[in-house]
Design brief:
The complex is a heterodimer.
Chain A: E1 2-13, E2 16-28, E3 33-37, H1 44-52, E4 59-64, H2 84-94, H3 99-110, H4 125-139, E5 143-147, H5 155-168, E6 173-178, H6 181-187, E7 190-195, E8 198-202, H7 205-214
Parallel strand pairs in A: 3-6, 3-7, 5-6
Antiparallel strand pairs in A: 1-2, 1-4, 7-8
Helix pairs in contact in A: 2-3, 3-4
Chain B: H1 2-27, H2 39-56, E1 59-60, E2 63-64, H3 65-86, H4 89-93, H5 104-132, H6 142-169, H7 171-187, H8 199-205, H9 209-222, H10 232-256
Antiparallel strand pairs in B: 1-2
Helix pairs in contact in B: 1-5, 2-3, 2-5, 3-5, 3-6, 3-7, 5-6, 6-7, 6-9, 6-10, 9-10
């Protein structure tokens, strides 16, 4: 279970501040697949970062009663100057995994071949997505925090992700940030719409999508 | 208690991973690799020692110049490089904060530790090499040397803990760092023994924590050919206060840190 209580987040902006979230409350149960919907700049990525503990709320509390992945997107979590292998080694070390045991999976899942020996900063965004996904799947989190951009790979990659996340790990919790109704329809069974700094939780996806398209 | 040991294990894991990462990004895997970490203090101390010896002859106050300058300069380079490496350390490492188990203090500690180990190796290496050719004395007491080194390190680390979060909040501070580290030179005990000073100066200069550390380090090397002046409790208390302030600042900065 993840419980968010009255989450506020503001960033400094010039001499004033920009309020992104103004008191968001919700609870995510184990196994739920939650779509985070919102327009550009509504605060989806901010909320994902707060959930993942990358940034801290300005006020309010987040209680995590399960293990959460780091936010999976194009950026973050990697060292651009290190190679794909070095990043895998680093992740294995900090999460207490045996590198030799995960190496094969990384090679297999990413299909990056020799490219894994090159610095991550030379990767295309699609290649980064593959690596990020592979590494997060190794750790076996209870809940995966996903930025939609990462799911927009080629057909083959999408199939793999679907297989690993929704078939092999059907019991896990997912939070997917997106502004595309299609993605939410396909992957989620609940939705949280963020608008004007407030969040509203919907148990019915089609209702949520109707509200969202009316925004 | 179980939670505490688990947390400890995770932090040890994180620190090892960060060390390896820092060493590979800074020095690469080519040629001598991480041994580069001791090259800078070695060159610095070695060259300055040669210049001093050329200017002032081989002895001062009955102590060999070369060893005196080397024992002074290597701790000083430790302080200077550790402090300058802790400036903006969070910004540089920002993307790693995606992993919750990595704390801000880990970044500071790892950078400090690399500098510390590098300069310690440099000191041992140059000391041993010069001992073999007969221009470095055999230490009178390794215990005192180690105690001095430890206190110097404690002081340095506690300063880094304060400077790192402050540099994140204020850009002005960054501009002052070179001046501050320069001012450290007369206050650090690098170029004098306290016994050479007047009694009132002695009392004054002992308020500077690194002076105690330098005195102990040098007493460990020269033994009773000098008389050490030191105040260990002052160094420990000063460093503890700085550490508490630094940890509080880190905590505060972390709460508002924007991670790209």
């Amino acid at each position: 279970m993840i419980i968010c209580e009255d989450i506020h987040k503001h960033y400094p902006l010039g001499h004033g501040r920009k309020n992104v979230l103004n008191g968001v409350n919700f609870t995510i149960q184990k196994g739920q697949k939650v779509g985070l919907l919102g327009r550009n700049g509504a605060g989806k990525s901010t909320l994902i970062k707060l959930l993942g503990g990358v940034e801290f709320p300005s006020s309010g509390r987040i209680r995590r009663h399960m293990s959460l992945s780091w936010p999976l997107g194009f950026g973050g979590g990697f060292q651009g100057s290190l190679t794909g292998y070095d990043n895998a080694r680093f992740i294995a070390r900090i999460y207490g995994q045996d590198y030799d045991a995960i190496k094969d999976f990384v090679e297999d899942f990413t299909e990056l071949g020799r490219q894994l020996k090159a610095p991550v900063k030379t990767y295309s965004s699609g290649m980064r997505a593959r690596l990020a996904f592979a590494l997060s799947l190794i750790i076996e989190f209870d809940c995966y925090l996903i930025d939609e951009v990462i799911l927009v790979g080629d057909q083959d990659f999408q199939r793999k992700c679907y297989h690993e996340l929704f078939e092999k790990r059907a019991d896990r919790t997912l939070v997917i940030a997106s502004h595309s109704p299609g993605t939410i329809q396909k992957y989620c069974n609940q939705a949280l719409i963020i608008h004007d700094g407030l969040g509203r939780f919907y148990d019915d996806i089609s209702e949520a999508l109707a509200v969202y398209s009316a925004l | 208690m179980a939670g505490l040991t688990k947390g400890w294990r995770i932090q040890v894991r994180v620190i090892i991973a960060l060390m390896i990462r820092e060493l590979t990004t800074r020095f690469g895997r080519e040629n001598i690799g991480f041994l580069w970490v001791m090259v800078e203090p070695l060159l610095f101390a070695g060259l300055v020692a040669v210049v001093w010896a050329a200017m002032r002859g081989s002895e001062t106050h009955g102590i060999s110049i070369i060893s005196f300058v080397i024992t002074g300069y290597i701790p000083l380079t430790l302080f200077r490089s550790a402090v300058s490496r802790s400036v903006k350390v969070f910004e540089v490492n920002g993307s790693l904060l995606y992993h919750r188990q990595i704390k801000l203090i880990d970044f500071i500690f790892v950078r400090f530790l690399i500098e510390m180990i590098g300069s310690l190796f440099a000191l041992m290496f140059i000391g041993a090499a010069l001992y073999v050719v007969g221009i470095f004395p055999l230490p009178y007491s390794f215990g005192h040397m180690l105690l001095g080194w430890f206190l110097y390190s404690l002081f340095t680390f506690s300063m880094c803990l304060v400077i790192a979060p402050l540099s994140e909040v204020s850009d002005i501070l960054e501009k002052f760092i070179p001046v501050v580290t320069y001012l450290m030179i007369p206050l650090s005990g690098t170029f004098f023994l306290v016994q050479w000073l007047t009694p009132s100066m002695r009392e004054f200069i002992l308020w500077s924590p690194p002076v105690t550390a330098m005195e102990l380090l040098r007493f460990g090397l020269y033994g009773h050919s000098m008389r050490p002046y030191y105040d260990i409790s002052l160094v420990v208390i000063f460093s503890l206060i700085m550490t508490v302030i630094g940890l509080a600042l880190c905590r505060k900065v972390r709460r508002t840190l924007v991670v790209g």
